[in-house]
Design a protein that fits this description.
The chain has a domain of 47 residues: Orthogonal Bundle (Histone, subunit A). The radius of gyration is 25 Å and the shape is flat. It is mainly alpha-helical and 114 residues long. 2% of the residues are buried. The protein contains three helices and two strands, in the order H-H-H-E-E. The protein is 34% helix and 4% strand. Strands 1-2 form a two-stranded antiparallel sheet.
């Protein structure tokens, strides 16, 4: 029995969608970089699609990783304690502009959305 041909799904990110996304992200890519990045993004989407196609049992518990954590294998959580940074003044002294111990950064240009 011949092996079924693997059909490559169509590209989800077309050239026009990619051009729109790079414009929104204010990316300045040369044509070779843009083609490479678009191909890589489409390849990632194909891989995700293949993973979605894997059939799983309905009672499989949801986890964020492949190793279940149990009380026996999990370390005890450490207490959440905040400590002031001893180098804060040295760090602030390196900033080009500081106001009331906050580093001032320039505004990011943006457009109003409708």
């Amino acid at each position: 029995m011949p092996q079924a041909e693997k059909r490559v799904p169509p590209e989800v990110i077309t050239e026009s969608i990619f051009a729109h996304l790079t414009h929104l992200a204010a990316l300045d890519l040369n044509p070779e970089e843009g083609d490479y990045l678009r191909r890589e993004l489409n390849q990632q989407l194909r891989a995700i699609s293949e993973l979605e196609a894997i059939e799983l049992e309905g009672d499989l518990p949801i986890t964020s990783h492949g190793v279940p954590y149990t009380d026996a294998t999990s370390p005890q959580l450490r207490p959440d304690e905040s400590e002031p940074c001893p180098l804060a003044d040295d760090i602030l002294a390196q900033a080009p502009q500081v106001e009331e111990r906050y580093i001032v950064v320039p505004d990011i240009p943006h457009e109003e959305l409708e």
